[in-house]
Specification:
This protein has two domains: about 80 residues, no CATH class; about 50 residues, no CATH class. Helix content is about 50%, strand content about 0%. The protein contains nine helices and no strands.
Length: about 180
Amino acid sequence: MAGRGEGNRPPRRTLGDYAYQQRPKHYKNIVTHPFNNKVVELKPTLLSLIGSYPFAGMDHEDPYTHLSTFMELYNTMGASDEDVEVVYLRAFPFSLTCKAKIWLQSHPNKSLNTSEEVEETFTRRFFPSSRFISAKLAITFFSQWSDEPLCETWERFKSLLLRCPNHSFDDATQLHIFYSGLRP
């Protein structure tokens, strides 16, 4: 080690130093103040209310229903039009738990900038094309169950349509599918 003095040596590190991580590398996956630096206070009661309707990312859960419920809840805050986006972005992580929370945390730091981006990535992950195709087929091949009253059949058909909001069936096609699925 000629020409290298004692002062130029890097500090000695132990194996434990390499295993020790001081803090997480990513604090926020969603940009919380994309449009302004104004701080919007989220009331603990609102966060508690949002947290009482969590989405865990399980197969039986409907991401569109979760988004609808979440929007109903965060709209109760009464934020001004300019603050709605900030409220959405700050409150959405509180609506997730388990697998869905891990999914959100797996995104790079500040990679989600708008509510549209959050919704798009959320639905793409938890309502993938295979699930979309299955939901659309359930609508296409809809039929009334034996001994099912007409009013319950209609409610079940409407619920299928709600579970797949991008089904692209116009009103006339929906009526035809429903009518064709009725028992004599």
